[in-house]
Specification:
0% strand; elongated; GemA protein
């Protein structure tokens, strides 16, 4: 049991160093982030829970770094894909792309800026609302 816990601990430490490398952090910057997340400056002093908190903190920094570049966040891209599913557009990949080209003049989701992604989400919500109201009115006509 102790060996398994030690393996998990070493794995988390490797993940922390890997994430720090992805974020181009110096050792001092990593220690500052560790102190911010867990209140400790050394990984040896950290419990497994502290290491997990540090990993989560670095993950948030990674997402924030992507957002600061001005592009759509992973959450925005996820929401766009969810709305695409709700609209039933997943069977035809061109449908969302053509919609984006028409309203935002962007051809790929990955190229969307933060504001453009927000506007696209709102447009897709409106389309979904219209589709649902059409479906409801057709059902009412069929019942009558």
């Amino acid at each position: 049991m102790a060996r398994a816990a030690l393996k998990d601990r070493n794995h988390m430490i490797r993940q922390i160093w890997g994430m720090a490398k992805e974020l181009s952090m110096t050792e001092d910057e990593l220690r500052a982030a560790m102190y911010q997340a867990a209140g400790k400056e050394s990984m040896r002093l950290c419990s497994d829970k502290d290491l997990y908190l540090i990993l989560c903190h670095l993950g948030r920094l990674k997402d924030l770094k992507k957002t600061q570049l001005g592009y759509a966040t992973p959450q925005q891209l996820w929401k766009i894909r969810e709305l695409e599913k709700q609209l039933g557009w997943t069977d035809n990949s061109k449908r969302l792309r053509k919609f984006m080209e028409k309203y935002s003049e962007i051809q790929k989701l990955e190229w969307l800026k933060f504001k453009q992604a927000g506007d696209l989400i709102e447009s897709l919500k409106k389309v979904l609302k219209r589709e649902r109201s059409k479906k409801d009115s057709q059902e009412k006509l069929q019942k009558a």
